[in-house]
Amino acid sequence: MAEDKTPLSEVKGLSKKTLEKLGKAGIKTLGELSEYSLDELQSKIPDLSKTTLKRLLDKVNELKAQPVIAEKPVEEAKAGKGKPAGKTSRKMSGKKKPVKAEKSEIEVKSEKPAKTPKTRKPKISAKPSEPVRRIIGRVYSFERGGARISNNKVLARILDSSKKIEELIGARILLKYGRDITVKGKIIGKHGNKSNVKIRLDKPVSTAVLNATVYM
Q1: Is residue 107 part of a domain?
Q2: 55, 69, 73, 200: which sits with the fewest CB atoms below 10 Å from its CB?
Q3: Can you give the pTM of this predicted structure?
Q4: Residue 200 CB burial class (10 angstroms; 0-12, 13-18, ≥19)
Q5: Is the same domain home to 146 and 203?
């Protein structure tokens, strides 16, 4: 084999780590590598995987299979100088263009695939959207205690008949009035025998809240 003394460092596709492990095992040329079988290499160099060792041996067998091109002797080359120019030109014109050798399996596998561009995902706002609310009633008065008026408690008439008054107690609501003024609150109980409820607001309001729409 012509490549017996070829250093492993000249073989494409071998990493530095692989070369170091082979060198520590005393294997530095293709000829030295070809002396071992796959099982022998596994026991001699346990740090290398079976797949890597098999690729190395395949590379050795591939180089063995390549034909050796013998160079023409110098005397034969000199003797050819006396031939007519016409015959030489015909021979040159008949030569085929050299075909590029295909890459070996170990070289192809060592090449890293091109990175595909990452598609940017649309940013999703962490803030949840405002839930869809429905109208359930209207404010008609403040809660009174004698001559005292509570400016953070109002009375509302429930217009929505889909739910019973008892089911609405404890529910969070939203009042909307004026020029898009909103205030949140909570239904705390019934008021009277009709479909009226008491609402405690999160903050005091003015008399402009009267006739405000109640949303839930």
Answers
A1: no
A2: 69
A3: 0.40
A4: middle
A5: yes
